[in-house]
Amino acid sequence: MAPVSLDTINPKVLKCEYAVRGEIVTLAQAVQEELKSKPGSRPFDEILYCNIGNPQSLGQQPITFFREVLALCDHPSILDKSETRGLFSSDAIERARQILDQIPGRATGAYSHSQGIKGLRDAIAAGIEARDGFPADPNDIFLTDGASPAVHMMMQLLIRSEKDGILCPIPQYPLYSASIALHGGTLVPYYLDEATGWGLEVSELKKQWADAKSKGITPRALVVINPGNPTGQVLAENNQKEIVDFCKKEGLVLLADEVYQENVYVPEKKFHSFKKVARSMGYGEKDISVVSFQSVSKGYYGECGKRGGYMEVTGFGPEIREQIYKLASVNLCSNISGQILASLVMSPPKDGDESYESYSAEKDGILSSLKRRAKTLEDAFNKLEGVTCNKAEGAMYLFPCIRLPEKAIKAAEAAKTTPDNFYCRGLLNATGIVFVPGSGFGQVLGTWHFRCTILPQEDKIPAVVSRLTEFHKSFMEEFRE
Amino acid sequence: MAPVSLDTINPKVLKCEYAVRGEIVTLAQAVQEELKSKPGSRPFDEILYCNIGNPQSLGQQPITFFREVLALCDHPSILDKSETRGLFSSDAIERARQILDQIPGRATGAYSHSQGIKGLRDAIAAGIEARDGFPADPNDIFLTDGASPAVHMMMQLLIRSEKDGILCPIPQYPLYSASIALHGGTLVPYYLDEATGWGLEVSELKKQWADAKSKGITPRALVVINPGNPTGQVLAENNQKEIVDFCKKEGLVLLADEVYQENVYVPEKKFHSFKKVARSMGYGEKDISVVSFQSVSKGYYGECGKRGGYMEVTGFGPEIREQIYKLASVNLCSNISGQILASLVMSPPKDGDESYESYSAEKDGILSSLKRRAKTLEDAFNKLEGVTCNKAEGAMYLFPCIRLPEKAIKAAEAAKTTPDNFYCRGLLNATGIVFVPGSGFGQVLGTWHFRCTILPQEDKIPAVVSRLTEFHKSFMEEFRE
């Protein structure tokens, strides 16, 4: 008798899904193994992972200054050696010293305060203040191993049962649906309007909120992802104000996923944090609960493997803060390198620092290249038969809509899968390109999409476009009515 | 209307407790602030944190080789520079190169496979094989941010409701009670026998198992912490065999907390992993489910801040393995520096490597000092009136029993706290020494204990002993009948 079977595990685990690393990716890994053992067995020689926002896996280089500081903090005993001056920039050496001075006993190998090292939280709070023009309190910062554990913590805090609802955009980043499922709550969907560039209409929020209430669900929080994942839109400030008012009026915690705050590619849009918007409306601590998530994995830094991030928690009473602290303390603390990196991305080199020029060049190079790649891919999608793609205003993704022929939909049915999955499987098998089917994010019933990152390096983009275009043509030929 | 209050949060969060960073530690932080703002306001000038297994916070130095490799992996562009040879040992440079070669694209800033980088898992599996003399499969390894998230994952997998029970030692490390509470299960306590050096009797397991069953609880798993936390005992191999047989017979998953595997201080005891014991009995994959937790935070490495660790998952079918993989994938991956460090602690320098001698000297220095400190503290406790302390065979803690006078118990009652908490508060206020009250770990009703780490540096141990002894004397004087 096996002690554990699918019938006896936690059904919430069974229910949870995470498409970004789901079926198509497992298939891609198998094809990659096949390519290794049988080179030439496919019409392509490498897998192009466009499934996940993982810039450095596709060749993006880390920011040199950040890595210098991390290396010095990892091995502080070289700080005073003469060779070190030849290997590291002087401001990186200086910054590493400053950081080490803020760590009790300079012990980067010790558990820190459960919210993270105080001096690093000071730097982050100062960075938020500089960004927003409103005060930030280091005691509101909880450093976490990337943004995901922070999201889980808030879901764990808020969800009591399936009667508690979390309003989530559809399409959404599936961390949210996964976390809500794992914590046994109900995802209350609100639909982004594809026709208006993935617009977030407050009328839709109100409608879905009322609908949930009528079903006996208590909406507890509203998730907003801005810039959008997988949808790439950037919210207008006025729209954000309406959202803030809605949350305030209905007593919803505003869970603001702001991990793409540096990824805005169009001049007419600008990132505004939800806390700043709320403060600019005159709402303070007592008026609204806002949690802002930030991560070192995105932006121009793209340091996914470092697992750094934080949440800024505002508008909760001290007794609730204590409960959040307790949850953080059960896991002791987040990793110190990630903590250091989170402080660095919120306080990068300044004009006049030795590294400033190279830092700026690296940063601008990455962001302007991402912008070009986004545009090239967007244009390419819009040239495909039956495909329409909204503007990539921000984030790292495109989420084009594809109108599939009836014959393809039937073929998918026969293959016991969804049409978008069927398309993505075909694409992978024919080209090695990995997209995530729209089903993994949610989409209006009867519409089909896929998510594609804008992360392949620029010299690979032409190949992506031509392979995709060729596949798409032959797919449409095959299944045309 | 505040959207969130203690009445409306998840009651499982409210229920969860984690004493290792609980009330006494919060009080200690307040006293530390007081010392900073008003030096001389107390009869001591520093807080001695003996509450938590956090070696480097108390001055333990990291192993140089490990930090060299981490720094080089953080900033690989210095690998080829001539100055680097002057700063780093040649085998650290070589090892960093090997590790980077195992990372796709040498990208230490990319998300890895959700179980961790394959090459690092290979090294860990080889280390387990070398330790145990039985095969280990890299596909059984799940790298995690320290051992805590691994424990949470298993609890999340196994616990469906409060009808599911997890057998835990009492006293236990409160991560277990916290995780069980957060996941809504029932902790089924089995008591370690203080009279026999915290012996783990299978008769007690059977009794508590039957008792749980009679209450309608389904026991799902047995937690064993070996070497013991907070109790410091090391299990005898024969005892482990009985435990394995019990789990096999009753269909329990054996959750083996083996994070102190390097911390054994007595010649008559040796660490044996539960998987090795099970294999030595002829039990394979199909016979018993064993999960072994390991961490970079303990041992002689003590790298708590790096948040590295792994679990080795054996004896589960592929369909369950897939569910565990899914849980891992929702958080994408553990931090890469922690992954690298986990591979290093399982494959340290070997005889003949340039760093071997210094590595061995550092390792032996730390372990032999820990052994001396354990003995000194154990002897000191046993000299205190009304205090008895078992031998510290392993781990990093002592858990002495203290018989408190009736008058002290009444005074605690008047102060609305438990007697052990009352004692620890008094100790902190009088001496700056931070112990954790036994209530945080569980203890036989009517007995009182505290947990003390053996981690203060050796030059501080005499002060700990004399301050403690003095406080204890005056405490007993004050409350003697």
TrEMBL record, chains A, B:
Domain called Aminotransferase class I/classII large: residue spans: 92-465
Pathway: Amino-acid degradation; L-alanine degradation via transaminase pathway; pyruvate from L-alanine: step 1/1; Photosynthesis; C4 acid pathway
Cofactor needs: pyridoxal 5'-phosphate
Keywords associated with the record: Aminotransferase, Pyridoxal phosphate, Transferase
A Gene Ontology BP annotation from the UniProt entry: L-alanine catabolic process
Keyword Zinc-finger: no
Coiled-coil region: none
EC number annotated for this UniProt entry: 2.6.1.2
InterPro entries named among the record's database cross-references: ALAT1/2-like, Aminotransferase_I/II_large, PyrdxlP-dep_Trfase, PyrdxlP-dep_Trfase_major, PyrdxlP-dep_Trfase_small
Quaternary assembly: Homodimer.
Family according to the record: Belongs to the class-I pyridoxal-phosphate-dependent aminotransferase family. Alanine aminotransferase subfamily.
Classification via PANTHER family: ALANINE AMINOTRANSFERASE, ALANINE TRANSAMINASE
Protein's UniProt name: alanine transaminase
Origin organism lineage: Eukaryota, Viridiplantae, Streptophyta, Embryophyta, Tracheophyta
